[in-house]
Protein backbone atom coordinates (compact mmCIF):
# COMPACT_ATOMS: atom_id res chain seq x y z
CA UNK A 1 0.00 0.00 0.00
CA UNK A 2 1.09 3.57 -0.49
CA UNK A 3 1.72 6.24 2.10
CA UNK A 4 0.57 9.82 1.92
CA UNK A 5 3.52 10.89 4.06
CA UNK A 6 1.45 12.28 6.91
CA UNK A 7 4.23 11.61 9.41
CA UNK A 8 3.82 10.10 12.84
CA UNK A 9 1.62 12.81 14.35
CA UNK A 10 -0.49 13.38 11.26
CA UNK A 11 -0.92 9.66 10.72
CA UNK A 12 -1.95 9.21 14.33
CA UNK A 13 -4.44 12.07 14.30
CA UNK A 14 -5.89 11.19 10.92
CA UNK A 15 -5.91 7.42 11.43
CA UNK A 16 -3.22 6.18 9.04
CA UNK A 17 -4.45 3.09 7.20
CA UNK A 18 -0.88 1.78 6.82
CA UNK A 19 -0.15 2.12 10.52
CA UNK A 20 -3.36 0.37 11.46
CA UNK A 21 -2.85 -2.47 9.01
CA UNK A 22 0.74 -2.82 10.18
CA UNK A 23 -0.45 -3.57 13.71
CA UNK A 24 -3.65 -5.50 13.03
CA UNK A 25 -3.34 -7.39 9.74
CA UNK A 26 -2.93 -11.16 9.93
CA UNK A 27 -0.80 -11.14 6.78
CA UNK A 28 2.39 -9.26 5.86
CA UNK A 29 1.82 -5.59 5.07
CA UNK A 30 4.17 -3.62 2.81
CA UNK A 31 3.94 0.15 2.97
CA UNK A 32 5.77 2.08 0.27
CA UNK A 33 6.99 5.32 1.82
CA UNK A 34 9.67 6.16 -0.65
CA UNK A 35 11.27 4.78 -3.75
CA UNK A 36 13.99 2.88 -1.91
CA UNK A 37 16.97 1.73 -3.90
CA UNK A 38 15.88 -0.96 -6.41
CA UNK A 39 19.28 -2.70 -6.27
CA UNK A 40 19.70 -2.10 -2.55
CA UNK A 41 19.74 -4.88 0.03
CA UNK A 42 16.73 -6.34 1.75
CA UNK A 43 17.33 -5.47 5.42
CA UNK A 44 15.76 -7.71 8.08
CA UNK A 45 15.58 -6.40 11.64
CA UNK A 46 16.48 -9.18 14.09
CA UNK A 47 15.97 -8.21 17.73
CA UNK A 48 19.29 -9.52 19.05
CA UNK A 49 18.85 -11.92 21.96
CA UNK A 50 15.11 -11.22 22.26
CA UNK A 51 13.86 -12.80 19.03
CA UNK A 52 12.71 -16.38 19.19
CA UNK A 53 13.19 -18.95 16.45
CA UNK A 54 9.57 -18.67 15.23
CA UNK A 55 9.79 -14.89 15.04
CA UNK A 56 13.01 -14.96 13.05
CA UNK A 57 11.65 -17.70 10.78
CA UNK A 58 8.58 -15.64 9.86
CA UNK A 59 10.77 -12.67 8.90
CA UNK A 60 13.11 -14.88 6.87
CA UNK A 61 10.22 -16.65 5.16
CA UNK A 62 9.16 -13.28 3.78
CA UNK A 63 12.57 -11.72 3.14
CA UNK A 64 14.51 -14.57 1.53
CA UNK A 65 12.11 -15.20 -1.39
CA UNK A 66 11.81 -11.44 -1.96
CA UNK A 67 15.60 -11.09 -2.09
CA UNK A 68 15.80 -14.06 -4.46
CA UNK A 69 13.14 -12.61 -6.80
CA UNK A 70 14.81 -9.20 -6.91
CA UNK A 71 18.41 -10.54 -6.98
CA UNK A 72 19.28 -8.34 -4.00
CA UNK A 73 21.51 -9.19 -1.05
CA UNK A 74 19.93 -9.91 2.31
CA UNK A 75 21.25 -8.00 5.32
CA UNK A 76 20.40 -9.50 8.70
CA UNK A 77 20.55 -6.53 11.05
CA UNK A 78 20.91 -7.79 14.64
CA UNK A 79 19.80 -4.94 16.90
CA UNK A 80 20.13 -4.29 20.61
CA UNK A 81 19.92 -1.10 22.61
CA UNK A 82 22.59 -2.23 25.09
CA UNK A 83 25.41 -3.09 22.69
CA UNK A 84 24.89 -6.86 22.82
CA UNK A 85 23.78 -7.23 19.18
CA UNK A 86 25.96 -10.20 18.39
CA UNK A 87 24.72 -12.42 15.55
CA UNK A 88 26.22 -15.47 17.23
CA UNK A 89 24.07 -14.82 20.35
CA UNK A 90 20.86 -14.35 18.37
CA UNK A 91 18.08 -16.91 18.27
CA UNK A 92 18.74 -16.93 14.54
CA UNK A 93 21.02 -19.94 14.50
CA UNK A 94 23.50 -21.00 11.88
CA UNK A 95 21.31 -24.06 11.32
CA UNK A 96 18.36 -21.83 10.38
CA UNK A 97 20.52 -19.86 7.97
CA UNK A 98 21.92 -23.06 6.47
CA UNK A 99 18.39 -24.18 5.62
CA UNK A 100 17.69 -20.90 3.83
CA UNK A 101 21.04 -21.01 2.04
CA UNK A 102 20.12 -24.48 0.80
CA UNK A 103 16.65 -23.37 -0.37
CA UNK A 104 17.82 -20.18 -2.06
CA UNK A 105 21.57 -20.43 -2.67
CA UNK A 106 21.73 -17.38 -4.96
CA UNK A 107 20.89 -14.99 -2.08
CA UNK A 108 23.96 -13.28 -0.64
CA UNK A 109 23.71 -12.93 3.15
CA UNK A 110 25.40 -10.18 5.16
CA UNK A 111 25.11 -9.94 8.94
CA UNK A 112 25.43 -6.65 10.82
CA UNK A 113 25.44 -5.86 14.53
CA UNK A 114 23.64 -2.61 15.34
CA UNK A 115 23.39 -0.76 18.62
CA UNK A 116 21.27 2.09 19.86
CA UNK A 117 17.55 2.71 19.64
CA UNK A 118 16.30 -0.20 17.48
CA UNK A 119 14.08 1.93 15.23
CA UNK A 120 16.78 4.51 14.53
CA UNK A 121 19.47 1.85 14.06
CA UNK A 122 17.32 -0.02 11.53
CA UNK A 123 16.49 3.16 9.63
CA UNK A 124 20.22 3.92 9.33
CA UNK A 125 20.93 0.35 8.18
CA UNK A 126 18.13 0.61 5.61
CA UNK A 127 19.07 4.03 4.24
CA UNK A 128 20.05 2.45 0.88
CA UNK A 129 17.74 -0.58 1.10
CA UNK A 130 15.18 -1.80 -1.39
CA UNK A 131 13.04 -3.09 1.50
CA UNK A 132 13.13 -3.14 5.31
CA UNK A 133 11.46 -6.17 6.95
CA UNK A 134 10.46 -6.00 10.62
CA UNK A 135 8.14 -7.86 12.95
CA UNK A 136 5.27 -6.51 15.01
CA UNK A 137 3.91 -7.92 18.26
CA UNK A 138 1.17 -5.33 18.76
CA UNK A 139 -2.37 -6.07 17.75
CA UNK A 140 -3.58 -2.48 18.12
CA UNK A 141 -2.12 0.85 17.03
CA UNK A 142 -2.60 2.44 20.49
CA UNK A 143 -0.68 -0.41 22.14
CA UNK A 144 2.11 0.01 19.58
CA UNK A 145 2.31 3.75 20.30
CA UNK A 146 2.34 3.30 24.08
CA UNK A 147 5.03 0.60 24.01
CA UNK A 148 7.41 2.32 21.58
CA UNK A 149 6.91 -0.04 18.65
CA UNK A 150 9.94 -0.42 16.37
CA UNK A 151 7.68 -1.39 13.47
CA UNK A 152 5.64 1.79 13.85
CA UNK A 153 8.77 3.95 14.11
CA UNK A 154 10.23 2.59 10.88
CA UNK A 155 6.85 2.63 9.18
CA UNK A 156 6.55 6.37 9.80
CA UNK A 157 10.17 7.36 9.11
CA UNK A 158 12.04 4.88 6.90
CA UNK A 159 13.10 6.15 3.47
CA UNK A 160 12.39 2.79 1.80
CA UNK A 161 9.38 0.47 1.59
CA UNK A 162 8.69 -1.37 4.87
CA UNK A 163 7.28 -4.89 5.26
CA UNK A 164 5.67 -5.57 8.63
CA UNK A 165 5.27 -9.23 9.57
CA UNK A 166 2.82 -9.88 12.40
CA UNK A 167 4.45 -11.96 15.15
CA UNK A 168 2.53 -14.23 17.47
CA UNK A 169 3.53 -14.23 21.09
Short summary:
The chain is an alpha/beta fold. 39% of the residues lie in helices and 20% in strands.
Please give a structural write-up.
The protein has 169 residues and is of the alpha/beta class. It has a single domain, classed as Rossmann fold (3-Layer(aba) Sandwich), CATH 3.40.50.12370. The chain contains 7 helices and 6 strands; from the N terminus they run ααββαβαβαβααβ. Strands 1-6-5-2-3-4 form a 6-stranded mixed β-sheet, with helices on both faces. Strand 2, helix 3 (53-70) and strand 3 (74-80) form a beta-alpha-beta unit. Helix 2 runs antiparallel to helix 7 (150-157) and helix 5 packs across helix 7. Residues 8-15 and 140-147 have low confidence and may be disordered. This is Universal stress protein.
CA radius of gyration: 15 Å
Strand order of the largest sheet: 1-6-5-2-3-4
Count of individual beta strands: 6
Oligomer: single chain
Q: Mind summarizing the main beta sheet?
A: 6 strands, mixed
Q: What percentage of amino acids are in beta strands?
A: 15-25%
Structural class: alpha/beta
At the first level of CATH, what is the class?
Alpha Beta
In sequence order, what are the helices and strands, one letter per element? HHEEHEHEHEHHE
Low-confidence stretches: 8-15, 140-147
Number of domains: 1
Give the CA-CA distance, first to last residue: 26 Å
> How would you sum up the global shape?
globular
Amino acid sequence: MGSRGLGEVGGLLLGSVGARLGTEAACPVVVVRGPGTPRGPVVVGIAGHIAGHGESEALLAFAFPYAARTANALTLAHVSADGSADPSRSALTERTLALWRERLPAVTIVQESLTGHPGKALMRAASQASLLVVGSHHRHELSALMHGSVSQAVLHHAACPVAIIQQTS
